[in-house]
Design goal:
Layout: E1 2-7, E2 10-13, E3 18-26, E4 33-39, E5 46-52, E6 58-60, E7 68-73, E8 78-83, E9 92-99, E10 113-114, E11 118-123
Parallel strand pairs: 2-11
Antiparallel strand pairs: 1-3, 3-8, 4-5, 4-9, 5-6, 7-8, 9-10, 9-11
Length: 124
């Protein structure tokens, strides 16, 4: 089993920045893909970024390229999502998820492990 705990959400004005954290514990070593999703009220869960723990390759949704940066601190078993130039449309609950490979990383149904999420609210 893998446990994922997100933190770092909050309410920030448009144009501001946040850094979200996802700390993993348990049997994480078989899960190379660590991803961030978000879900706004009334909308489907959307993949925004992922990182391969092995290769450190990163992938992003087109809607967030240039503003979101995913990274990993292996010593802390923590993955980060740096969000810059926040927009009101970024308001959502942000979730961390893990699965075996980054193949088809945008498909939520393929992920076995999820955190409980952290709320990000962008004030216009």
């Amino acid at each position: 089993q893998v446990q994922l705990v997100e933190s770092g959400g909050g309410s920030v004005p448009a144009g501001g920045s946040l850094r979200l954290s996802c700390t993993a514990s348990g049997d994480i070593y078989d899960n190379d893909c660590m991803a961030w999703f978000r879900q706004a009220p009334g909308k489907e869960r959307e993949a925004v970024a992922t990182i391969s723990k092995l290769t450190q390759l990163t992938f992003y949704a087109d809607s967030v390229k240039g503003r979101f940066t995913v990274s990993e601190d292996k010593a802390k078993d923590t993955v980060y999502l740096q969000i810059d130039s926040l927009e009101p449309e970024d308001t959502a609950v942000y979730y961390c998820a893990a699965k075996d490979t980054v193949s088809n990383w945008i498909v939520p149904a393929l992920y076995k492990f999820w955190g409980r999420g952290t709320q990000v609210t962008v004030l216009s």
